[in-house]
UniProtKB/TrEMBL annotation:
It comes from the Bacteria. Keywords: Signal, Transport. The lineage of its organism: Bacteria, Bacillati, Actinomycetota, Actinomycetes, Kitasatosporales. Residues 1-27 form the signal peptide. The keyword Transport applies. SUPFAM superfamilies: Periplasmic binding protein-like II. Pfam families: SBP_bac_5 (PF00496). Belongs to the bacterial solute-binding protein 5 family. PANTHER family: OLIGOPEPTIDE-BINDING PROTEIN APPA, PERIPLASMIC BINDING COMPONENT OF ABC TRANSPORTER. This is ABC transporter substrate-binding protein.
Amino acid sequence: MHRRTVSFPRARSAAVASAALASAVLAGCGGGDVSSTRTPVVVGGTVTIATASETPSFHPYAQFGSALAPYAYDSLVTVAPDGRVVSGLAGKWRAGATSARFTLRKGVTCSDGTALTASGVARSLRYASDPRNRLVGARAALPGVPFTVSADDATRTVSVRMASPYSFIERTIGLVPVVCPAGLADPAVLDRSTRGTGPYVLSGYTSGGPYLFTRRKGYTWGPRGTTNSAAGQPERIVVSVVPQESTVANLLLTGGVNIASVTGPDRARLTGHGLATARVPTVVGLTFFNERPGRPLSDPVLRRALVGALDRKGLANVATGGDGTPASHLTAADSVCHADVAGGNLPAHGAVTALDTTGWTKDARGRLVKHGRPLRLRLLSSADFGSTLPAVAELMAATWQALGADVDLVSESRNAVMQAMYQSGDFDAVVGSSPGPPLPAQLVPYFSGPPPSRGLNFAHVANRAYDRSVALALRAPGTAGCADWNRAAAALFRSADALPVADGTGTVYGYRTTFAVAPGGRIVPTSIRLHR
């Protein structure tokens, strides 16, 4: 087993690749948690929030801009912590599998003071969905089905019509941040400023952080009609970049930050200190296999053998740093249509015995060979995706080495891993960590359709059973298609197209601060309250 470690500046991420983008844009689907504390609130004041990575662009449709978008941008609808779709910019709406209609609230204004119109919303959605704009964040969040948008300013309605059925129109298109006309007139300004209707406005930043957001006045169209003037809502929000979780924990204990997410072992020392907490279900160790023609794992028998050889319980223990539970799905426990699908469909150890039927044998040195060529695998991981993931990859590599594979175990930065996934294609397996997309439909571009640069299917998956079940599921609105969505996931597991390692949780902590979180750990801006 070869080991090569490349050092880069740390910038942890809660999600792997563009799946993170969908989760960030669509956070709020299917659950969440609310922190609590009993001390009096502070009028005005500043709340400091720690984030693990820098924001190279504040464009809400850019690859990493969606994470901070909710502070400055609203969507047509939102999803409450209990999973129900509630009002946002739209006060009324209705949606099926082929169309949706949203009616805007009266009195919504952009941060420059101009009124938001239905035609302005339609223009924003068209811009986000136009493939010529190459907006990675928007592409990851929007339906993988073409659609058209029309508007009627007189009735304040925005209408969406799909080219083919799509189950979750309101939970995808309805949740995309709306950019005001001033931002669309010159989209370049969105990299370093905000042009939205949200409760805050970006008012200062440095390239490596911190990022300062200042509260708007007169905001009355938040989720379920929440305003921007509740007692305890901070006047300023400072987002500070703190890559190391151990440092984050120290700052939480001393009040150096008010809100931060911690997923690793530092959580143990935060217990019992009076911090507000909210738990976030996650999927740890979501692993993809490169099925590009010419790569060894394009062989499904080999993929199934490698997955079947793994000790899933042992991997889960390493992934969670304790008594772990093997993952039950590709999505987190609070996602729409979640069920225990993995256990009964992932290959078992017996899959190893099928290797000789496709020409894999062991040479005198115990190596797996086919047509005289030894099996060599390049296995990528990154501590930037989660502190335990390099150890998970190491255990996988040791198992595959014992099976006869020559494993090049590589630990890289987040950016280097994503470059291998989406550009060079130089990997055979990659281990990541994700809160899991909130909708099963959000997985489709990663397991179906074209590869980069025309699509998101970086692993070159081609699974006809998955595609058939997805086609059926998309015809049913909302959760009516859950049985077909889970049959689709089962098809991926049977073919060993992906392996989620463990069901886990992260924790968002608050120091003298309360808040609500959506799936993926995103803070709901209008829920933040500063306490004494």
